[in-house]
Specification:
heterodimer; A: 301 residues; alpha/beta; Rossmann fold; 2 domains; 7-stranded mixed beta sheet; 6-stranded parallel beta sheet; 11 helices; globular; B: 673 residues; Maltoporin, Chain A; 5-stranded mixed beta sheet; 8 helices
């Protein structure tokens, strides 16, 4: 017996076990796979469970761990949070309906046959409108991006910016080593730098260079999330993870009610909040309107 | 002479203990989410905080040299008044003050009479060592007010392969603030001991149309120490050794910086006047007519751009003017005759212009190439000495120098970088050229570990003052001076200990040949510049540096340096040991901070073969920035424990040792509106 045959038998046995388990349960089952056990993920899961339970009290949940095959339940829908969890779902449960969130790109689920997504992404228009509200004097916005990943996003941003009387100064980045000269070239050209979801440009390894440049040159950096603001970005749009859980629950309920996941359009997480770093604003001598400050979900001082 | 053999060890041990206790006092948050990978790491991964990071860490670790950076914030919180006070906090740096000028020494070499000719001082990359003495004023007469400094970058060791002449012992690049750093009008006044007062008015703004301006004017005036006692002059005919009201100083600065697009235009003007209380060069003691004036102004246009093909271009065009005047009062009367008080006038004036261009490009992922060209033309170098009896020197020379350089950073592997540099300089003044290489191997076997092996050389051509000066009275013209050279070998270990602490250890050897020094010729008792024999310095430096989340930061360093001549005799004015401790301790909300500095140095050998006392100087500054909005208030005590200490006198002094300032105070008030 070769390895391929053995693997085939194991997979079939695995599905058989799941089928047997599903027959032993009465209500719908939602399997939850989370990439990480950290606060935003946990908040989303808690809110998701509460919202689904409110509509369908008989729904059962189980934290699915494909690595350990701990579960005895057969899920109707898999709720996957984060890229790692999505990949696990695609690999181990390709024939289940998949609801994916905490991902930045719907391409992540393209290999799954029956899925829908709630993506952590802010549209160009919403991002730029917030920029104009928080930094009304900043008209020239620098964007560093990898053309292979984000050319389309930047093109749309440029058109949107023009409509809002803003200007995008875009610098293509092909590797992390391009970042220091690119930042240097922006130092006298832009009023702010907008961080976008681009793995070539923004990572734990490059964050320091970007934030230090922003800090030293007093050019505000618009971060990608709460952690960026805590570390020195002026502000960031983030998501209300309890609301995200509710949004995902609404989608999951549609699937549980029989809607084909594929027929549910991918959505953007719809409840954005913002976080402000007042210490950064003070350092950069930026005055932020009191109303905006009071509306922030979190303020770092 | 007393040594602090026991006490400094006790102090050092206490300070290190204190340093390691700081983390427990700091409210640091442990990193979270550091295991998150992939795209989500952008949103939820651990991001290093800009508030706790060493702001220029990357610059320091990647550089093929031992670098220290002091930020404007640190300058403010330590209460530094001059560049020399800033440099005194750095491992291996020392200074000498002869109550006329401050001289910077580095790694055991602090040569009197060189007026900082062997350290290249740059303001935003513009060379301010002038064209006659190669000097740069680093105390009250510095061309830029200390309040305008954004940061000071200090490169130790010879850097002629990139910077050319004067980069002999090191390079000090003063980076000034920009309009955006003020964003309004700033008003500053300070009052200090000896009836000293300083005022500054600065306007800075970054406009929406890309124009950014910074304009600043400042003035300083001090009566100085009105009662300086010099035992060498303790005689009823010389006021019993008391120099009274002759230590005054004043200066005026103007500084402007305009940035538009890729262009930066800088203009600076400075003038400085200082009374000379030491009766140097055999002048009449306690005479207020003996004093020096000098001024320096420049205009500098810089262009910098990143071209679409990835070439980083920097070009510069500049014009400088420098002038100096010294009034030296002598009594020409023969013994027994009535006094014949005559002012000997010493004037110099130099103008020069120059241009520089530098291109950098990443040729491939392994290659980062920098090449450049520099041309400097001294239009005139006037030296004029006269008194009522005649003219003793009337010299006007001119010369030019040009240079080209190439530097290649080769990244052989992720862990190994080789940095090769070569520079060729030609000097028309002595019709000589010099080629200076630099080699650096940087090995980073672990994320927090850098090991650097460095070799470099530098040279300094004799300047017009050393070549042509003679006054017919105290100093004669030198004959056939040769350029001096230095070669350095250095091994540096930079090791991060945790998120807050890092340690830098360095071992080095400097070999100097043909050093140009001012000596007294025993044949005629006149001063003269000569090339002396070889000297060498073997030294080691260890520095522990820390910064914590709550804003506490500081460093402790230990330096041992053995500077000897060719026969193993310790050099003049060179302390064997320098130990330093700096700490900034802010309150939780950072509204208030305390900055404390301790600087220990062992005794320095004097010209008469004596040794100055070893000593610890303590400076303390308290700083408040939130008492009123946009107002900063600081109060400093310098030499807190009123330690009496001296620096060796030079060949031009009667004093073997010159006593330094006792305890002094300053209160400073800054307001932005």
């Amino acid at each position: 017996m070769n390895n391929t045959t053995l693997l085939y038998i194991i997979k079939r046995l695995f599905l058989l076990i799941i089928l047997l388990i599903s027959l032993s349960t009465n209500g719908a089952v939602v399997g939850i796979i989370s990439s990480y056990d950290v606060k935003p993920y946990q908040q989303t899961i808690d809110s998701f469970k509460a919202s689904v339970k409110q509509a369908h009290p008989d729904v059962e949940f189980f934290q699915f761990d494909p690595e350990r095959n701990k579960s005895n339940l057969n899920p109707t829908v898999i709720f996957a949070l984060g890229s790692k969890a999505v990949q696990e779902s695609i690999n181990k449960l390709p024939d289940r309906s998949l609801l994916a969130t905490m991902i930045l790109d719907k391409k992540e689920v393209s290999k799954h046959s029956n899925n829908t997504t709630v993506i952590l992404m802010v549209s160009q228009e919403e991002q730029l409108k917030w920029h104009r509200r928080i930094l009304p004097k900043a008209k020239k916005i620098g964007i560093l991006y990898d053309p292979q990943l984000n050319q389309e996003w930047v093109d749309i941003a440029k058109v949107t910016a023009a409509k809002l009387d803003l200007e995008i100064i875009d610098i293509p980045i092909h590797s992390a080593r391009d970042i220091p000269p690119a930042l240097k070239s922006l130092s006298h050209k832009v009023d702010s730098i907008l961080g976008i979801a681009d793995t070539t440009v923004y990572s734990g390894a490059t964050a320091k260079a970007v934030l230090l440049f922003s800090f030293r040159n007093r050019i505000p950096f618009v971060g990608l999330s709460n952690t960026w603001v805590k570390s020195g970005a002026l502000y960031a749009l983030d998501w209300d993870y309890s609301e995200l859980g509710k949004q995902c629950a609404d989608t999951a309920l549609k699937i549980l009610d029989g809607t084909d996941a594929n027929k549910i359009e991918p959505q953007l997480a719809n409840k954005t909040i913002y976080i402000i770093n007042k210490k950064t604003a003070d350092h950069m001598k930026i005055e932020i309107d009191d109303k905006i400050i009071s509306g922030a979900s979190r303020i770092y001082k | 002479m007393r040594e602090y053999k026991i006490s400094y060890r006790v102090v050092a041990a206490s300070l290190i203990t204190l340093f390691y206790m700081i983390p427990s006092m700091a409210e640091s948050e442990p990193p979270v989410l550091d295991t998150i990978q992939g795209e989500e790491a952008m949103l939820f991964g651990d991001i290093p905080s800009v508030f706790t990071a060493s702001k220029y860490e990357q610059k320091i670790t990647d550089a093929p040299a031992r670098i220290s950076i002091i930020t404007g914030d640190e300058i403010q919180r330590y209460g530094h008044r001059t560049l020399v006070e800033i440099l005194n906090t750095i491992p291996g740096f020392q200074s000498t003050n002869d109550r006329n000028y401050s001289l910077i020494g580095n790694r055991g070499l602090n040569i009197q009479g060189d007026y900082n000719a062997r350290i290249l001082i740059l303001i935003d990359g513009h060379r301010v060592n002038e064209n006659i003495f190669d000097s740069a004023v680093v105390d009250r007469g510095m061309i830029v007010n200390v309040d305008l400094i954004d940061r000071v970058e200090v490169v130790r060791g010879p850097a002629s392969s990139l910077y050319g002449s004067s980069a002999f012992f090191g390079v000090v690049n003063v980076i000034t603030k920009r309009g955006r750093d003020t964003q309004g009008t700033e008003f500053s006044v300070s009052a200090e001991s000896h009836n000293g007062k300083q005022g500054r008015l600065t306007y800075g703004m970054r406009y929406d149309n890309e124009l950014e301006i910074l304009i600043s004017a400042s003035g300083y005036d001090s009566k100085g120490n009105d009662q300086l006692y010099y035992p060498e002059f303790d005689d009823p005919t010389t006021n019993n050794g008391v120099a009274q009201d002759v230590d005054d100083a004043n200066n005026k600065n103007l500084f402007a910086k305009f940035i538009y697009g890729n262009f930066t235009l800088t203009a600076a003007y400075d003038e400085y006047e200082k009374g000379v209380p030491t009766a140097s060069y055999g002048t009449i003691f306690n005479n207020s007519h003996t004093r020096t004036w000098e001024g320096h102004s420049y205009i500098d246009l810089k262009y910098q751009t990143l071209m679409s093909n990835g070439v980083d271009v920097t070009a510069r065009l500049f014009y400088d003017d420098y002038w100096y005047e010294g009034n030296w009062t002598y009594d020409y009367a023969l013994p027994g005759d009535p006094p014949d008080e005559v002012i000997f006038n010493d004037k110099t004036n130099g103008d020069w212009w120059g241009t520089e261009a530098q291109l950098s490009k990443e040729i491939s992922e392994q290659h980062y190439l920098t090449m450049g060209f520099e041309y400097r033309n001294s239009l005139y170098e006037k030296q004029h000495q006269f008194d009522i009896y005649g003219v003793y020197l009337d010299s006007n020379t001119d010369n030019y120098t040009w240079a080209s350089f190439l530097q290649d950073e080769l990244r052989l592997t992720d862990e190994l970088i080789i940095n090769l540099g070569l520079r060729y300089d030609y000097f028309s003044s002595v019709n000589k050229n010099s080629t200076n290489p630099r080699l650096a191997v940087i090995w980073s076997p672990y994320t927090e570990t850098n090991l650097k092996l460095l070799y470099g050389s530098a040279f300094r051509a004799p300047n017009p003052y050393e070549v042509y000066y003679q006054d017919g009275n105290t100093q004669k013209r030198s004959i056939s001076l040769e350029p001096e050279t230095i070669k350095t070998y250095e091994l540096i270990l930079e090791q991060g200990l945790d998120n807050h602490l890092n340690i830098v250890a360095s071992l080095y050897r400097n070999n100097i040949e043909n050093m140009i020094v001012l000596v007294t010729d025993p044949a005629d008792n006149l001063l003269v510049f000569v090339n002396k024999n070889e000297a060498h310095v073997i030294g080691s430096e260890v520095e522990l540096h820390g910064h914590w989340d709550n804003g506490w930061k500081g460093s402790i360093s230990f330096c041992n340096q053995q500077a000897e001549d060719s026969v193993g005799v310790q050099l003049i004015n060179s302390p064997r040991n320098l130990y330093k401790f700096n700490l900034i301790a802010p309150t939780v909300d950072d509204s208030f901070s305390t900055g404390i500095e301790l600087q220990y140095e062992s005794g320095r050998k004097t010209l008469d073969g004596n040794k100055t006392d070893s000593h610890i100087i303590t400076n303390l500054t308290v700083f408040n920035k939130q008492w009123l909005k946009e107002m900063r208030l600081s109060a400093s005590i310098y030499n807190l424990f009123d330690k009496r200490y001296s620096h060796p006198g030079g060949e031009e002094h009667t004093q073997d040792q010159i006593e330094q300032d006792e305890r002094s105070f300053r209160i400073k008030f800054d307001y932005t509106f």
